[in-house]
Amino acid sequence: MLRVAMVAYTYYASDPRVRREAESLAQRGDQVDFYCLRAPGEPACETVRGVTVRHLPMARYRGGRSFVYVLGYLGFFVLAQTALTWRHLRRPYNLVHANNMPDFMAFAGFWPRVTGRALILDIHDTMPEIYQGKFGAGPGHPLIRLLRFQERLSGAFASHILTSEHTKKEALASHGLDPQRIDVLLNVPDPAIFGNGASPPTPEATEAGFRLVFHGTLAPRLGLDLALRAVARLGDAIPGLRLDLIGDGDQLPELHRLAAELGIADRVRFSDGFVPVEELPALLRGADLAVIPTRPEISTRYMLPTKLLEYALLGIPAVVAPTHTIRHYFDEDQVAFFEPGDVASLAETILALHRDPERRRRLATGAARFFERYDWNRHKRVYLDLVDRLCAP
Known about the structure:
By secondary structure, the chain is an alpha/beta fold. It folds into two domains: 3-188 and 374-391, Glycogen Phosphorylase B (Rossmann fold, 3-Layer(aba) Sandwich); 192-373, 3-Layer(aba) Sandwich (Rossmann fold), CATH 3.40.50.2000. It has helices at residues 16-27, 66-90, 110-114, 127-135, 142-157, 166-174, 191-194, 224-234, 252-261, 280-284, 306-314, 324-329, 343-354, 357-367, 370-373, 376-379, 381-391; strands spanning 3-7, 31-36, 45-48, 51-55, 95-99, 118-123, 160-163, 182-184, 210-217, 241-248, 268-270, 289-292, 318-320, 336-337. The strands form two sheets. An eight-stranded mixed β-sheet has the order 3-4-2-1-5-6-7-8, with helices on both faces. It has a six-stranded parallel β-sheet with strand order 11-10-9-12-13-14, with helices on both faces. Strand 1 (3-7), helix 1 and strand 2 (31-36) form a beta-alpha-beta unit. Helix 4 runs antiparallel to helix 5 and helix 8 packs across helix 13. The longest helix is centred in the N-terminal third of the chain and has 25 residues, at 66-90. It is globular, with a radius of gyration of 21 Å. It starts with a strand and ends with a helix.
């Protein structure tokens, strides 16, 4: 049995990637301590599906000030490093698994690493590209150069690196990280929660109209304002049209205002913040179409949205922007592409799919082919084998 410490600047309940990794270790009998943020109402410590989740006394910052973001990262880093080191000195960990952002979260496992324990740095997002898009900085900006430096430094400190897409591995190699020390673990949904895709659910008999869904982080780069404008543009062309936005983020207040300004507040339904992963399938089932209107920019180039894979496993067809990484994994027989950033194109694609239920069925069937290669029950061996290799005597 291994003792593993995992660290992430995230809320455990609503972050599917970190949960899959932690729970896959716990399911085979390893002891896992997960250090994360603490949402209102959460206890300081709890056990979730065999994982000891230690909620540190800090919440996520939401806003557009880069300086405050950095302070938030630093504050969490200090809390996590202190708590992790204290428990390691009492009873040593075999492995530390640090998740970005930020990349320097790897140094939360400083003491275990310098005393000979293995450390994985899991790069979910490439920070230089994210901040180029978020704050409009060029690649030569001092902040971006600093982010690339700390990315390389953190990667060099780690025993090994995980990342979430093959295209992202290529990007990290171009940043100067050693590709031989990088493995790809895709954000494949857990079939224990989302099912195996063998029998896609049928729409709820009581559901009237045509329901669009999106879930996850609500941020400008993900194009939710485009989805709202498309709903307004469609008007009464689709009777009973409704858009469900399930999640939270910096853009939430703006989206509420925009829905009111467009006169579609009665057609857009917002959730009360993020939803635990276990509750998502019940909220998503019965949807007619998923909408992923990601803006094509540097910060989204290497993203394969986890939500797209969850829709595919649930049998929900999706209309998506053809970003670089989505094109790498999906084609026109699996998802409906629209002209990125174009409200008219998005509205026309939604309308065409509304009028063609047979095409929606074909898209759902086509998207499910993704799991013929990347089924989680097989793909998680990438992670488990890496952990065993790093912790071998």
